[in-house]
Design brief:
Elements: E1 11-22, E2 25-31, E3 46-50, E4 56-60, E5 71-76, H1 84-91, E6 97-100, E7 116-121, H2 125-137, E8 143-149, H3 158-162, H4 164-167, E9 171-176, H5 188-191, E10 198-202, H6 205-214, E11 223-226, H7 230-233, E12 242-246, E13 253-255, H8 261-267, E14 285-290, E15 293-294, E16 308-310, E17 315-316, E18 320-324
């Protein structure tokens, strides 16, 4: 068995499949070069992948966790993002090698729940698909899946999920709104009356906010969300370039719009620890001594934000920041 790498380290895996899963979505199958078993993962887990541009990105595993010979991820090509998914989709072919972290799980399936309600929006189907495959492989508990996308062509795994054999007596609803909010699927009847089910939701922030609003009367520990901080890493319309200095006497380094502090420091030869690169894990926490930070992470408390920032997502409100490394 291939030994799981330590935190911040990676294992080289070979891409044994690289193919479209839907319009704008690419599937990648990863295996150990020598065919060894891979470190185990649990339903809802993700990998950190070093994409060809050198950036780190998180992708949920979507195959059955009982499979030990491969990892499967599906990646949406985000043309308006920071370039990680574009680099991976456009520059990774079958036979390539990618550096991959050990699986981590921030969206763990509670296997003690008696039943499940899954809500997936777009590419958010990936961790939920691993959960369903796990349940089916163990003879499963009942579940309902609500998979909401814009159109059929952009729906990953549409053929598999729409096959009655996949549901196996469970309820699977695939709904396309064709990009019109007026055609949005009404989830309120699903959540109006709390049950013993656990809810798992992954998808765009508006969908998760809507589900959060509709489930406020459910037990708090029965409702689970995952989005990898996607809105935290996306460039904003009011973003501006700024500079960072390493110490008060350090040379100013420009951080352009669409580039993170972490990426700039790497480009200048600094090898810094990081993992999620989405403001959700805390690995790249860095002390600062001057300037005002635009904090965009989901980790630091208000007190901690006075002296520290996450350089993978946060930016400056002032023209410059002074970091202490």
């Amino acid at each position: 068995m291939l030994e799981a790498p330590a935190e911040g380290e990676f294992m080289p895996l070979r891409v044994t499949r690289a193919e479209p899963a839907a319009d704008g979505i690419h599937l990648f199958e990863l295996r150990a070069p020598d065919g060894a078993e891979l470190p185990p993962f649990t339903p809802g887990a993700h990998l950190s992948v070093r994409v060809p541009s050198g950036a780190m990105r998180n992708y949920s595993l979507c195959n059955d966790p009982h499979e030990r010979d491969r990892y499967v991820i599906a990646v949406k090509r985000e043309g308006g993002g920071r370039g990680g998914s574009v680099a991976l989709v456009d520059n990774t072919a079958e036979g390539a090698t990618l550096d991959v972290s050990a699986p981590r799980n921030l969206f763990e399936l509670d296997t003690s729940a008696p039943e499940y309600i899954f809500v997936a929006g777009g590419i958010g189907i990936t961790p939920i698909l691993a959960m369903i495959r796990y349940l089916k492989s163990i003879g499963g508990k009942p579940f309902r899946l609500f998979y909401l996308t814009r159109h059929t062509a952009g729906t990953a795994f549409h053929g598999e999920l729409s096959d009655p054999a996949f549901a196996g007596g469970n309820a699977v609803v695939i709904h396309h709104d064709e990009g019109d909010p007026a055609n949005a699927y009404d989830l309120w009847p699903v959540f109006e009356e709390p049950t013993r089910a656990h809810i798992y939701c992954c998808g765009p922030r508006p969908l998760m906010d809507a589900v959060r609003d509709m489930t406020g009367h459910w037990p708090e520990n029965s409702v689970h969300f995952e989005d990898f901080g996607s809105d935290l890493v996306r460039p904003r319309a009011d973003d501006k370039p700024f500079t960072v200095r390493l110490g008060p006497d350090g040379a100013p380094l420009e951080v352009p719009v669409g580039t993170t502090i972490l990426e700039v420091l790497r480009a200048h030869g600094r090898k810094l620890p990081s993992s999620c690169e989405s403001g959700t894990c805390g690995t790249c926490r860095t002390r600062y001594t001057a300037g005002e930070v635009d904090h965009r992470d989901m980790v630091l408390t208000p007190a901690e934000q006075k002296t520290a920032l996450m350089i993978c997502v946060s930016r400056a409100r002032t023209d410059s920041l002074v970091l202490e490394l």
